[in-house]
Design goal:
The strands form 2 sheets. The chain has a 4-stranded antiparallel beta sheet, covered by helices on one side. A 3-stranded antiparallel beta sheet has the order 5-6-7. The chain is an alpha+beta fold. It contains 5 helices and 7 strands, in the order αβαββαβαβββα.
Length: 184
């Protein structure tokens, strides 16, 4: 019985390791499938709106002309169950270079609001890389960690999450909750 328990324990350990590896690979593939996508948050919902025109308006506000051929697909995300925030807009660009240029233009412009796209209201507009659900949860945990441990910088590039304690400190890549625990 002792040998059987030991064999089963070893097999269980190996299977857990294999499942963890497969989950990581699946997560990486899911994030890679979003590599040409951005999310735009903060634009109020209007009846019979043309989402592509909204995306083009945001591009114009950032001095980035968006043609119909640059966008593979764009649509509103599903309505959130909690809160009163308008659903975001997901934009899938045909080329990753266009997505990167769009995000870079957003980094240059310090403020962006609905007023800049011709609306009467003045709600802030946020443009971010599209993250898979698992990376979104990890990013939320990293933001919490950043506040609690007084990290100065937290950012996302190409679906990867990075942190830095202060200006000259080394950059840390956050790819799992264990990484955050390691930096405690």
């Amino acid at each position: 019985m002792s040998n059987l328990i030991e064999a089963l324990t070893t097999e269980n350990s190996q299977l857990k390791k294999k499942v963890k590896e497969l989950e990581t690979r699946l997560e990486d593939i899911e994030q890679y499938s979003r590599s040409n996508c951005i999310e735009i948050q903060g634009i109020p919902l209007e009846p019979a709106e043309n989402v592509l025109n909204i995306v083009k308006d945001v591009g114009r506000a950032l001095d980035f002309d968006i043609s119909d051929t640059m966008v593979d697909a764009c649509h509103r995300l599903g309505v959130q169950k909690t809160g009163d925030k308008p659903p975001g807009i997901i934009v899938k660009f045909v080329r990753r270079m266009d997505k990167e240029s769009f995000i870079q233009r957003r980094r240059v412009k310090t403020t962006l609001s609905t007023r800049h796209i011709g609306r009467k209201d003045d709600c802030p507009i946020y443009v971010n890389e599209s993250l898979s659900p698992a990376r979104r949860r990890l990013h939320a945990l990293a933001r919490k960690f950043q506040r609690e441990k007084n990290y100065k910088f937290l950012w996302v590039r190409n679906g990867k999450i990075f942190m830095r304690k202060e200006d000259k400190a080394p950059v840390k890549v956050i790819s799992s909750e264990e990484d955050l625990q390691r930096y405690l």
